[in-house]
């Protein structure tokens, strides 16, 4: 997350350099002209900063493939991509009920991955301690130690104020006021880039999954809660204080149950995974889980598919208004219940019904390609950004 500090020319130059590295980490290889367009930094400044970054070994040049920029004649443009110095990167995904850590090469090839069940919401300190232990175990499995780490990225299940790095929302009481990136850095001895889990999922699908090739995307994480990561102009959009995309707390039922955020009738009180299991459980003697509910849906169980389709339609009603405002090219559905065809179909039907026809016609609604690993892959992308900017 890029925060602009101070007003000196050196501060501005450092900020612009970080913005360029962010763009390369998110979008892959880009020409100098594309960097200027994507970042809003002037071409002259881009050229000057790229010259310095080439000298410092942060980026490398490669010849582009295909036709020249804008279809002109001559050679394809020279593209810039992040260099891949030695060392591994670490991605940490803190979900509501799990911790997942992946160790990868700078090319994003996974070397080791570990997952444990953990009540992250109610034990912030314990979750960070467990994440540090899991990181050390995964590094050992990959044949590395903390000295070989080039960057660490982490997704957390709550909004992070990018200005301070703190979690200020009342949704996670044990995390409120905490700076999760600084806390994990204290445990590991390495800088940590931290973001909301839905933003991490969006970055994962943008970098490695179903959102590749799209500049404007809404990533929806439907799990124990509901959140969204917004990609606008090829880059994550976090908003003024880091709460852009909090669709789970849009009111959909004025007289609904009180939500953990303090409001009532929020979207996530109607369509979270635990709520759907609660609705479906009376029709089944066995104790249901999310995995079993999805399996029943795949097997054609009418009740399971009805519950999932209804949930999709409710989510789609909220997304329809967002699609009218943002006009995205794709909605990518992830999280625990994101793989459900009935859920995705319900979202598509609701967007078709309630969004402007032109906005709906331009939109692709699809399940994510990365499943429950979208967030850890996004955390790895954040880690790559940290290592490049270091």
UniProtKB/TrEMBL annotation:
Gene3D superfamilies, per database record: 3.30.420.40, Winged helix-like DNA-binding domain superfamily/Winged helix DNA-binding domain
Sequence ranges assigned to domain HTH marR-type in this UniProt record: 19-63
SUPFAM superfamilies the UniProt entry points to: Actin-like ATPase domain, Winged helix' DNA-binding domain
GO molecular function, one term: DNA-binding transcription factor activity
Domain of life of the native organism: Bacteria
Family: Belongs to the ROK (NagC/XylR) family.
PANTHER family according to UniProt: GLUCOKINASE, ROK (REPRESSOR, ORF, KINASE) FAMILY
Name of this protein: ROK family transcriptional regulator
């Amino acid at each position: 997350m890029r925060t602009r500090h101070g007003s000196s020319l050196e501060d501005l130059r450092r900020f612009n350099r970080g913005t360029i590295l962010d763009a390369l980490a998110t979008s892959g290889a880009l020409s100098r002209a594309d960097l200027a367009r994507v970042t809003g930094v002037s071409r002259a400044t881009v050229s000057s900063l790229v010259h310095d970054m080439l000298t410092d070994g942060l980026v490398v040049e490669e010849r582009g493939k295909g036709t020249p920029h804008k279809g002109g004649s001559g050679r394809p443009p020279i593209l810039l991509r992040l260099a891949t110095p030695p060392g591994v990167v670490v991605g940490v995904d803190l979900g509501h009920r799990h911790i997942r850590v992946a160790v990868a090469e700078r090319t994003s090839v996974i070397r080791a991955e570990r997952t444990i069940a953990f009540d992250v919401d109610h034990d912030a300190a314990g979750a960070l301690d467990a994440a540090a232990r899991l990181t050390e175990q995964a590094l050992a499995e990959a044949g590395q130690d903390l000295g070989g780490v080039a960057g660490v990225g982490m997704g957390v299940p709550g909004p992070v104020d990018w200005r301070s790095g703190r979690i200020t929302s009342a949704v996670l009481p044990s995390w409120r006021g905490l700076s999760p990136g600084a806390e994990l850095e204290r445990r590991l001895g390495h800088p940590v880039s931290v973001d909301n889990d839905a933003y991490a999922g969006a970055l994962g699908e943008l970098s490695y999954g179903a959102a590749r090739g799209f500049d404007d995307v809404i990533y929806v994480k439907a799990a124990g809660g509901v959140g969204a990561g917004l990609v606008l102009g090829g880059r994550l959009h976090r908003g003024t204080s880091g709460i852009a995309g909090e669709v789970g707390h849009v009111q959909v039922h004025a007289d609904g149950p009180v939500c953990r955020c303090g409001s009532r009738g929020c979207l996530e009180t109607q369509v979270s995974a635990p709520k759907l299991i609660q609705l479906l459980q009376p029709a089944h003697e066995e104790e249901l889980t999310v995995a079993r509910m999805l399996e029943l849906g795949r097997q054609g169980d009418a009740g399971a598919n009805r519950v999932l389709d209804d949930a999709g339609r409710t989510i789609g009603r909220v997304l329809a208004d967002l699609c009218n405002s943002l006009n995205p090219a794709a909605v990518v559905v992830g999280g625990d219940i994101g793989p459900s065809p009935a859920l995705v179909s319900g979202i598509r039907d609701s967007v078709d019904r309630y969004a402007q026809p032109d906005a709906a016609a331009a939109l692709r609604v699809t399940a994510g390609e990365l499943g429950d690993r979208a967030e850890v892959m996004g955390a790895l992308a954040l880690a790559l950004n940290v290592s490049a900017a270091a």
